[in-house]
Amino acid sequence: MKRLIVFLLAIAMIAVPLVGCGGGNEGGNDAGAKDDGLIRVWVGEESAEFYQKTCDEYVAAHPEFGYKIEVKGMDTGSIAGTITNDPTAAADIYTVAHDNIGKLASTQCAKPITDETLIAQVLADNPESFRKVIYSNLNGTTYLYGVPYISQALFLYYNKSMVTEEQAKSFEGLREAAAAAGTKAITVTGDDGFNMSFALLAQRVSDHGTSVKIYEGADPASGGSKGESNCQGDDTVAIYRWLQAFAADPNGFKWASSDGWDADLDKSNLGVLAVIGGAWHYNTAKAALGETNLGIALIPTFTLTAESVEGLSGVSAGEVYRGGSFADCKCFMINAYSAASKYAKEQELIMYLSSKDVQNASYLECMNVPAYVGAADFIKQCYDQGKVTESQYNLAAMQVSMAEWGIPQPFVTGTLNTYYYSKNAPAVLRAIVDKTSFPTSGDIIIPETTSLEGIRKALYLVEYLWMHGVAPKDFPASLPDKA
Amino acid sequence: MASKSKGAPNKTKSGGFFGSIGKFFSNFVKRFVDGSIGTKLSHFIFGAGNFYHKQYAKGALFLIMQVAILAFMILCPTINGTPYGYKALLNLPLKNVSEGGEFDPATGDFSAGSDCKLMILFGFVTIAVIVIYFIIWNKNIESSYKADMDRKVGKKPTTLREDVETLFDQKFHITMLTPTCIAALVLTVLPTVFMIALAFTTYNSQDMNDLGTNLFHWNGVKNFASVFTGEGTLGVEIKNRFLPVLGWTFIWAIFATLTCYFGGIILALLINKKGLKGKKIFRTIFILTIAVPQFISLLAVRNLLGEYGPVNTVLQSIGLIKEPIGFLGLHAQDSELLAKVMVILVNMWVGIPYTMLMTTGILMNIPADLYEAARVDGASTTKMFFKITLPYVIFITTPYLISSFVGNMNSFNAIFLLTGGGPAYQGYAAGGTDLLVTWLYKVTIDQGWYNTGAVIGIFTFLITATITLVTYRRSKAYNEEDTFQ
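ok -> structure tokens follow
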């Protein structure tokens, strides 16, 4: 009997991990395998509570909907990678930045949207810039894949107790304030591809001019021409030379410290006076500075110096530029592995969640800036009616304004645009700012980024990655040259 | 003579191995030729021999197992659209794969492509099932033949009940080992074989994303070759970073092991010094660092040494430095050497108490008469330390030293939580302080380069296994067990 008990205990001990290993993942495993009466939704962590509440209200008001809804907060920065790694474990509906649409569609992690009413709503509500970047191609047919519901762009958070409103308008003004405080003027929340757009996409203030082009003329849905890209123009070289000098200045630019950009911005550390970030950094920035000290402004302007334009034509000292931004949108998408029987209801739910009313409510509760045309009027109205604080209003207003100083992150069908991230283009841009060599990116080495030629080579590499997705075998004999 | 006598057992051993294989096959023929009609039938229908000998329950059990396995092989049950059974074997070459993507806008029906991961996994599971089938097949013939033999000598063949009783009596060791072996097969062997298999595929999400596909295929030993040639998407990373990471892994393992080992011994000697007051208090203080979870200690140190941490703040406030020092290499421009020195120092802090605790116990057990005899012979304290204490401690702790060295080679926490592998090398996943194991984590979890991760994992295994086996087998603790003099 004793031996039987020992044996049964041994079996139990072994069965537990085996059963555990065989269990499904929490939050949406086997989405495609069965229709279990539940629609799972992944949204940004900061908005999960709001969307769960909104979905519950919808289900309660529409008993005929017939599905329960479970909302889970996810890190939207890495969500696309999570989905492509294992789409069967992903939610039925998920949200990503629009530039992932090509990748998710081509790796068959996303299902096209075909509901006529929903398509009509998307086309009626969203600006042309967003409408151009939410389609992709499946087996030769162009389909709508993403439904925009949040717009996002970079802007400036600054310490109002140390920087005046006037000083916050320019990098030079910030440097002046930093010199007075004995610290650094400005940092960015990260050195990833999105944040690095503040310099790459800088535009001339006088006419919004820039030589930078990314897939210009391409139709993202067609899968045909990649259009034209240019990152090696004289103005871009001059801007990076200016930024190199500003980063070398003891009161200029710095990268976020190992303790995080919020520790830099923190009023007690005074590691930096301003930071370029997005709406999703609002709560952290507010915690670092306090509501009263938190200033919000457009990304500042800067003036090209004689040193920065030396040896360059088509650009002159004294020209004023404003830092730019990828002006993106976040979209709802449907998992390709979601059961077909849920398809109609999923589209119905997306139509509701992306409606103007829900976008407005999302702004009021989570500071998600709406994506639809005319959102600025609603934001102003909220401020006038005292529904939002000054900083909350500024946040949305500045982000809407920054859309004029940026472009939606472009993509062409498939994954070409993702090479900008995966093949280290942002690291190359950082190497320019740091004036360091870039050890390798494929077969070539950029030995230095101090000289005009070195900077031009690095920018050529970035352009080449956008256009070809791989590093070039060698550099052309003379630059600039079309990548 | 000596070599002859050494060689003799080997020959016997080798002969024994091949002999047992030969015996197995000769038995097989013998059973078929000499066995009853029931035994002969058992070669085709499981349990037939048992039925023939009226062992109905046993026969039914064998038959059910045969039917279940054959059904599994023929009906090919599917999970997430990927089949088991004979179809899994056909899928194993990853030739018959589909991108999927057929979409019906009216119904929302979307056909997903083939899942190569599951195809490989299910292929191996099916092979394991086939192996189990043959084991049961052999057991069923054996069972019938044993009944034949029992009948021949006038014994009654054993019933299922008697067999079960035997399994809980004379063969209880088999009963207990069987579930353990099954668990090891499912939880250890199968994942390991799967991981090894991935090293021979193109399974990395970067390449797959680049090509816009969810499919991957076998590519032979190309991933291993890329370590030396630098070819392929990840070849540059492997070629340029493998040797530096491997070198640092060894340096780290040597320093981390020896500093903690000798630091612990010295600390134990100091605490055990005769006449020292408050020994228990000192021991308790050092043991407290063990009581605090290691990751908390490491994160606390990371904060201490951070840009706005107390160390930098104090150094700045007393004017020793103007800019904060990047102690832990968290930025690409920080000093790699400093970061390496810091992780070794911090590791001493968390590692020394373990050795101290263990050595304390050993020191207390060194026979006092050894020292007494040495004193009588006029040995000095230093001489006694080097001739008695140290050899004794080293003899006892050699296995610990080896396991500690291998453990340090795979010391994920200390590196990942302190430096995150930094300072980063622009353009590479592996940073300046990355060990093979943290690099492995980055290439798989962060980058999704599963095939490269598998190659690194195999190399790590080969290196650590070789070091462990060679050093342990050459150590006195192994060769001269129970012979410390």
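Residues 116-152 of chain B form the longest helix (37 residues).
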